Amino acid sequence: MVLAFPKVEHLERLNGLRRRITKMGLSLLVVIDPAHMNYISGFDSWNYQNTQVLLVPGNDLEPVSIVRGVDAGGARQTTWLSSDNIVAYADFYSDSHTNHAMEAVAEEIQKPGWSRGRIGYEGDTYYFSLKPFSCWKMQFPRPSGWMSAFRSINSRRSRPRVRSSSFAGLEGLSTR
């Protein structure tokens, strides 16, 4: 594993994000932007055309990285996550007109029961279009709540240091 920053720094970032997740009443945050995935987990990929997400639970469970099969090795090499929390989805989800990788993400959200809680997602990012959200709405017809929750910013104090960038507050409304 090769991390750009020490694991302890990634864990501090994760704890800060979890405080915001809890304050907003979310049980899970779906991180979609590759820069934000890197900020929290260290995941470093050049593959931006295929779906990749980081599921960050509000409790103390380790985040779950979901990537295309060919990217799982890279996730193991560039993150501090355990191998059990790196999930590779099948290639038939990629470049398909009938399937979408967010279906595989929805399956992972359902496994630990996170779909029963309020889920935050990055709704204002280049990497999240209407198609993935439509997949989720089909998978979770009656969720307890979806919320477009976070966007990445740099505060004035942290602009000189990329490693100090952080997630910040409420971006949209609950779909409840």
UniProtKB/TrEMBL annotation:
<dbReference type="Pfam" id="PF01321">
    <property type="entry name" value="Creatinase_N"/>
</dbReference>
<protein>
    <recommendedName>
        <fullName>Creatinase N-terminal domain-containing protein</fullName>
    </recommendedName>
</protein>
<dbReference type="InterPro" id="IPR000587">
    <property type="entry name" value="Creatinase_N"/>
</dbReference>
<dbReference type="InterPro" id="IPR029149">
    <property type="entry name" value="Creatin/AminoP/Spt16_N"/>
</dbReference>
<feature type="domain" description="Creatinase N-terminal">
    <location>
        <begin position="13"/>
        <end position="129"/>
    </location>
</feature>
